[in-house]
Specification:
Blueprint lengths: L9 E4 L6 E4 L3 E4 L10 E2 L1 H18 L5 H30 L9 E2 L1 H33 L1
Antiparallel strand pairs: 1-2, 1-5, 2-3, 3-4
Helix pairs in contact: 1-2, 2-3
Keywords: Membrane, Transmembrane, Transmembrane helix
InterPro entries: DUF4293 (IPR025635)
Protein name: DUF4293 domain-containing protein
Length: 142
């Protein structure tokens, strides 16, 4: 999730004017802004969700002694990752309106990496739950 803070999330090129519009976690910006172009739009919610998700994931890793806390943090992290994806999608829709509406923009690595993080978070929660069930079954055998 930290990589979302540094990689581009979305971009769009207008072949007629040669303008390039790039969205990252902090703003939507023209690469070569001409006079009269709209000002950059701040996309701080994307960065906030991504940073919060990375922080929760780091805390979750070190809660290995308490699996129930890990599961709760995993669910919070799930919601934060979905928030990152949702806000990235929302702001890409806003950016679509800024440059040549007929040409679609393309999502970059900064958008697809949270999807990978979401998948890995779901797998982590699944294996934490499985580990807890194994420990409980061993307690019943004693």
């Amino acid at each position: 999730m930290l990589s979302v803070l540094f990689l581009p999330i979305w971009s769009k090129t207008d072949p007629a004017s040669g303008q390039l519009l790039v969205m990252d976690a902090y703003h939507i910006n023209y690469q070569k802004a001409d006079p009269g172009m709209s000002a950059p739009i701040s996309t701080w919610p994307v960065a906030a969700f991504a940073a919060a998700s990375a922080l929760v994931a780091i805390v979750e890793i070190f809660q290995y002694r308490n699996r129930f806390t890990q599961l709760k943090l995993g669910m919070v992290n799930f919601l934060l990752i979905v928030g990152t994806l949702g806000s990235g999608f929302y702001y890409s829709g806003q950016a679509e309106q800024m440059l040549n509406i007929k040409m679609p923009g393309t999502f970059q690595a900064g958008y697809y990496l949270p999807t990978l993080a979401l998948l890995l978070n779901v797998l982590a929660n699944r294996f934490i739950r499985r580990d807890e069930q194994l420990v409980r079954s061993m307690d019943r055998l004693r």
